[in-house]
Amino acid sequence: MGTEAPRAFNREMYHDHPENVFYGTDDGSQDGSFQEFAEFRRHYENVSPERRENIHMISVVGGLYGLNFIPLWRPQQITIFDINPAAITYFRLIREVFTTSRDVDHFLARLTAGDYEARTEQEQFVRENIRLKQQGCLPRARGSTKRPYEQSWQYAFENFDLTKRLLTETPLEIRTEPMESESFSQWIRKQNNLWIYASNITQFHYFDLEFDDPSNVVIIQIIHPEQPQLLDLEPLSGGPVRVKFQIPLSAERIEE
């Protein structure tokens, strides 16, 4: 394995590039079957009940595959992050429309019609991109369109009311920074209830994060085209642990 991520050469492509927002995810099974999600669900259902009581969910925006983990993990706290401000805007708009729609059909109809407020120039840009995606004519110069939202957010749509309630009521923090930043590293180190969805970040960055005592830390990444990995750090709890965000993920106890 090399010392750099496979696509490290273009790692800057998401840094404040509004045209590089993903309108619909391509994470997971490429046939849109969503079959990889069954593994994540089995893991959640089989951990000890006390581990499910106080989950702090952290998810990169990406194509918002992380929406599916909200009704599965039922977190007590949510943090959404991305290095691209336009991606953060995308999440904010999707959350606003999701939490003010009656059901899935109403939600999708509003996205297609652009039937919601866009206050800033960037919000207007993203709203128009969503509308164009829904009409099947989003040009690549404005954004990337992957699979339909019905395939991207299957579990969130199956549990629409629960997802809506959690998006409305759960304390939310938004961070515009990369996972490998010092501020992110310092912020997560002492937390031990983190369930993290990292999408395919390690295609572009290899880095380490440390946890003081990860008794309830879970990390999921999905590498294109179809390489899901779930790393549960609970067996390494009892002391500091270093996670190597590479392909594949790995973790080791830090000798004190």
Concise description?
With 256 residues, the chain is an alpha/beta fold. Helix content is 32%, strand content 19%.
Protein model, in words:
There is one protein chain. The protein is an alpha/beta fold. It has one domain. The chain is built from nine helices and eleven strands. The strands form three sheets. It has a six-stranded mixed beta sheet. A three-stranded antiparallel beta sheet has the order 7-10-11. Strands 1-4 form a two-stranded parallel sheet. A hairpin with a 3-residue loop joins strand 8 and strand 9. Helix 3 packs across helix 5 (121-134) and helix 4 (104-113) packs across helix 5 (121-134). The protein is globular and about 55 Å long.
Give the overall shape, derived from the CA principal axes.
globular
The tally of helices reads: 9
In terms of structural class, how would the helical and strand content be classed? alpha/beta
Number of strands: 11
Low-confidence runs of at least 5 consecutive residues: none
Report the major sheet: 6 strands, mixed
Q: How many structural domains does the protein architecture include? A: 1
The helix/strand series, from N terminus to C terminus, equals EHEHEHHHEHHHEHEEEEEE
Beta-strand content bin? 15-25%
Helix content: 25-40%
For the largest sheet, list the strands in their spatial order.
5-3-2-6-8-9
Based on CA atoms alone, the radius of gyration comes out at 18 Å
Q: End-to-end distance, in Å?
A: 28 Å
- Give the averaged pLDDT, no decimals: 92
